[in-house]
Amino acid sequence: RSKEQGRGRGTAYHADMDALLRQRMNLERALRSAIEEQQLRLHYQPVVDARTAQVVGGEALVRWQHPERGLLMPDAFIGVAESSGLVRPLGAWVLRAAAAQLARWHAMGLGGLQISINVSALQLREPEFVESVRAEIDRYGLRPGSLTLELTESTLLDDSEGALRAVAALRQSGVMLAVDDFGTGYSSLAALKLVRPDRLKIDRGFVHDLPAAADDAALIEAMFGMARALDIEVIAEGVETPAQRDWLAMRGGHLQQGWLWSKAVPPDDFVAAVEQHRRAAKR
Ligand code: C2E
Ligand code: MG
Ligand code: MG
Ligand code: MG
């Protein structure tokens, strides 16, 4: 590296910065056209009731079918989407696509199925956001309660005024609200008190070292107790092992999401998973 060579230090730094900035701008431009050119996809990760092994719902997770780089995961582009504001049109696309998919599934007879989508802070603060949620629900004739919006603690608490007003209006519209990555923010309890969500999703960081980690186990039991007292449903994220599944299920954590059950999969595979579990449950 030129830095170690003791020469042109500032220049090398600028060159690096330039390269990074250029890369960022290229990514931003590509993402903008990806949204317009329908390169985004939704994959769905099953939410399973561990008591019956039935799929009770799914989380829509965005992917980018990049013409050269293949299928990209959100960590490759959500950051740029957030900082550029593109997360607004991206989020609008996700909302529309998930609502349309849910309507098709209901029409196919997958009745009780619920779908959740992730909503970013920028989206929630858009003045038209709540109206757009209502509009999509109407357009596809959905039962509002079949759609869940996942919001993180920081999204809920960042600019409290706007965010809380939106939350109140969403609650009125009948959609379900979930706190995502619960326990990782600085104000998890404040988020619960202010929002009174229908659900909380325990961040997979708490699940990862179960059942051995006594501290995580104690924290999760406390979350279950709190949720029960407040009548909030809990979904445990990141369930990867049978030991985690059983430990959670024995303590009331039967709603689970994780690679043990299934990764996020394309819509057709999701339907197959729903039907396979339904057949298995009937036997
Ligand atoms: P999230 O909402 O917490 O979603 C769960 C993430 O955990 C997903 O990653 C999922 O694939 C992954 N996961 C599920 N089960 C397991 C497991 O057992 N082990 C491990 N290690 N991971 C598991 P993904 O799809 O890469 O999404 C990452 C994040 O990107 C999401 O975290 C969410 O914050 C964001 N994201 C995804 N789709 C959207 C979207 O449509 N809009 C917005 N604003 N953000 C999105
Ligand atoms: Mg989520
Ligand atoms: Mg999460
Ligand atoms: Mg997350």
The fraction of residues in strands falls at: 15-25%
Terminal Cα separation, in Å? 65 Å
β-strand number: 9
Helix/strand class: alpha/beta
Tell me about the biggest sheet?
9 strands, mixed
Mean pLDDT: 92
Shape: globular
- Helical fraction equals 40-55%
Low-pLDDT parts are: none
SSE string, helix = H, strand = E?
Answer: HEEEHHEHHEHHEHEHHEHEH
Estimated radius of gyration: 21 Å
**Which ligands are bound?**
ligand C2E, magnesium ion
> How large is the count of helical segments?
12
Protein name: EAL domain-containing protein
Organism: Ideonella aquatica
Domain EAL: 24-278
Structure description:
This protein has 283 residues and is an alpha/beta fold. The chain has 12 helices and 9 strands. The chain has helices at residues 9-36, 78-84, 87-107, 121-125, 129-139, 153-157, 160-173, 188-195, 204-207, 214-230, 242-250, 267-282; strands spanning 40-49, 54-66, 70-72, 114-118, 147-152, 176-182, 199-202, 233-236, 255-256. Strands 1, 2, 3, 4, 5, 6, 7, 8 and 9 form a 9-stranded mixed sheet that branches. Strand 6, helix 8 and strand 7 (199-202) form a beta-alpha-beta unit. Helix 3 packs parallel to helix 5 and helix 5 runs parallel beside helix 7 (160-173). It is globular, with a radius of gyration of 21 Å. The relative contact order is 0.12. The chain binds ligand C2E and magnesium ion (3 copies). Residues 24-278 form the EAL domain. This is EAL domain-containing protein.
